[in-house]
Amino acid sequence: MVLVPFLHRPLKAPTDCLGCGTKHLVKTYHLALDDQGAAIVSKEIVAQFAKVGMGEFTVANEVESPPSQTVSSNGGPKDRPPIRELAPLAVERR
User: Fold this and answer.
1) HEC per residue, 12-50
2) C-alpha to C-alpha distance for 82 and 80, rounded to whole angstroms
3) CB neighbours of 78 closer than 8 A, spacing ≥ 6?
C-alpha cells in the first residue's frame, strides 16, 4: 500500500485510519499496488491527482469492469497490507 497525502486538504481533526492504522492530518489516498506498481483507481481519484500534478503516477489504461473497492469503517481489515512507501507529497498547482 502506498499513501498519498494531499497537503492542501487538511482534515478538521486528526483521524485514526482503520484501513492503514495510522493517524492522518490531511486527506490521504491509499493505493494498493500490484507487483508491477500499478493500481486501479476511480476516475475521480485520477482527476484529483491531475489537479495537483500526477508526480510519478501515469494513466496506463482504463479497466472497463474494475473489481469492487471497499472502505472498511467497522474496525478495519484484520490483516492490513504493509505500507511499503509514502508517495511524494502532492501540492496544489497555482
Assistant:
1) EEEEECCCCCCEEEEEEEEECCCCCCCCCCCHHHHHHHH
2) 6
3) none
**Which pTM was predicted?**
0.65
Task: Report the alpha-carbon distance of residue 59 to residue 38 in Å, rounded.
Answer: 9
5: helix, strand or coil: strand
Question: pLDDT (tens digit, 0 to 9) for every residue of the chain, 94 residues total?
Answer: 788 888 888 999 999 988 788 889 998 888 888 888 888 888 888 888 888 777 677 888 888 887 776 655 545 555 555 555 555 444 444 3
Taking the domains of the chain in order of start, what are their residue ranges? 2-86
Alpha-carbon distance 27 to 86, whole Å?
14
